[in-house]
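Justification of computing resources. Each target in the renewal requires a structure prediction run like the one illustrated here; the chain below, 224 residues long, is used simply to show the kind of job we budget for.
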Amino acid sequence: MEWFKSKYWYDGTNNRFPTFEMTLNLLRERFEQPVIIETGCQRLEDDLGAGMSTSIFAEYISKETAKGQLFVVDNNQEHLDTAKKCTEKWQNPNISFHCSDSVAFLEGFKGFCSLLYLDSYDYPIGDIWAANGGKVDLEKAMKIVADKEHEELMSEFGHLIIPCQEHCLNEFKAIESKLYETAIVLIDDNNFPGGGKPGLLKPYLLDKGWTCVLDNQQTLWIRV
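Resulting structure tokens:
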């Protein structure tokens, strides 16, 4: 997939590139016509800081499959409109956008899922900084939480962190019975204090027999 590396490598500055690359390679090995579900979506045309996920999946569906499908769900119509604009160059009828609560969408989804990408309900690093009386500054927020022990961090900021973790877990549970045995699960906002967005989902996945194959800014899981 030279198109992927040439467009999204960014001289190694894209910290999500390794997990996206492994995810797409696994997808090629396991599914000829995959069904991809993305919760949350691309919000800027050149969204390198957030990985440009919707563009990546849309281009993969269009270039690597004949009848693969991509379902993108977000509860913000403006975000969806941006994602549509970013992917309109492929004009693929198998790519659809849905304005909905992600848990409700996943609960009502008909069919089975090959790749589940959970990227809704951002980890609240900006809110953590703002809680200390400052304006949103991600770099300063990371400095605040980086040296705190887990118990201290969750005692002070758990009320901000836990909601995104609970939402992530609930998303997975909503679609769990509709995942193919060889399905792939990719979760964003992993490499943050307190376990990041998948802080509650990762132990659940382990208990259910899933295996983590790469753990970075995103965390990638399969059943083996």
